[in-house]
Every structure is written in structure tokens, then in C-alpha cells.
Amino acid sequence: MICVAHSANVSPMQTMGERLRLAREAANFKSASKAADALGVSASSYRAHENGQNEFGPEIAQAYARKFGTTAAYLLTGEGPMKNGRPGASLVSSYDPDEPEQENVEGAAYSRDRWSPTIAGAVPELDLKVGAGLGIVGDVINLPTGAGNISGHRVVSEWLIPGEYLRNEAKVQASVTIITEIIGDSMTPTYMPGDRVIVDLSQNKLVTDTVYVISDGEGEPQIKRLQRVPFSDPAQVLIISDNPNLQTFTVELDKLTIIGRICGHIARK
Length: 269
Prior knowledge:
Order of helices and strands: EHHHHHEEEEEEEHEEEEEEE
Distance between the termini: 35 Å
Number of domains: 2
Structural class: alpha+beta
Pfam family, one: HTH_19
Helix content: 10-25%
Number of strands: 15
Mean pLDDT: 75
Strand content: 25-35%
Largest sheet: 13 strands, mixed
CATH superfamily of the largest domain: Umud Fragment, subunit A
Keywords: DNA-binding, Transcription, Transcription regulation
Number of helices: 6
Protein name: Transcriptional regulator with XRE-family HTH domain
């Protein structure tokens, strides 16, 4: 499931600098200088944005939003969900097999059926890096619900991808799609570190021999090419790295968790 925290919108009287300060404080950066260090920018440049001396555009807003756990739309316009004064409380939940209220999510490691974008039509990028090698699971947020708590991966960004491309080219629905970043080199030269991939969470079964986000149930998610072993009983699958220097592994299909199929690739130049 996806839990989205909503509350009253920020007052329209707030300036960009004031929203930036609120986002920084909510992200537990106690001073502007510490935030500037974490961002890799000069303290004077950052302070000029926060105190309103200089305005900033979408590209800088996106960098601030990623670091502070909010959205560029919130920083630029004040639009977006708030939770206890913190912008960007949207999250996509992990599947927890020990959690009874999620017992109907069999086979899925992540889902996003109730996430709502702050930018209409956007696809969420999670604080999750799929490994071409080892992956990284980023910030996990706990939010109270009537039945207890829901844990989930923070949405760090929203990508506007044309709906016609998703439907007609990628053959997916935006409502079951997420974006994650790639780290590591085991899938080079096809997928490079820093590239993003579009993941169709509804395709969590091995139907076609292609590239998927997978997990062994214990480690972080990885991106690998899967190929079914013909006539194997029990069914087996080859886990293939595109990097020719790395070994191919064979495992029983039932022991592998398929999170989703890679249906798009956003490459860096």
C-alpha cells in the first residue's frame, strides 16, 4: 500500500526562502551552513536563497528538495502535502510478510496503489537505489495510522513522463510504476551508475526473459537480467549481469522475489 500524509497547505504568504528554511529544519539540519555543506554549495549562496536575497529556479529547487525530503513544487510554489509541518511526507510502503494487514500483497516487494502525486501525472522516484551489484535502501519513514504504523520508502522526486509513452511504448500504467536510481557496474554497459529505470510493479512474475528488479528476500534490491532454464524441475532461472566480467548464477525460481520489470531507461549522457 501507499500512505500519503495530507494536511493544510502552507500559507500562500510564505516566501520561497521561508519554505526553504522550514524544509531544512524539518530535515534536521540545524543551521544553514550545515545544510550548505551537505548540499556541496557555498554557505553564502545557500543563505542568499534562504533569506530571500536571491530566488532560485526549478533545477536548484530539485536539488534542495532531494536533500530535505520535500518536492520542488513545494519549495517553488508552496503546493504539496504536509505532515506535522514537514513537506514531502509521501511514501511507498514495503511489503512486510509479518504484518497481517498486508497479507493480500503476496509476491510484491513494493506497491503504490494509493500514492498521489503533487504534480498531476507524475511518477514517483523512491529513496531506493537498485544495485547493479549491491543496492541501497534509503530513508524509511514511519507514519501512524488507525491500526498502528505504516513503514515506507520516501518519495524523493516526481518525474513527469508523458502518459502516451507509458501506455503505448512502455506498455505500463502510471499507477503501478516507480522510478529508482542505479548504482554499481554489474549491468554496464547497458545500465550505467546514476541512470534511472522505470519499474512496472505489476509484472512481478517471470513471464518474459528480460530485465527485472529482484531480491533474495534478505539483501537490497538489484537489477538483473533473468532467463528461465528450459525443462528445469523445479523451475530454475539464470541471473545474468550484462557486465561480461561477472558470473552468471542459477537459482530456483521460487526462492527469488521479483519486485517488477524494467520497462524504461533514463540514461545520463
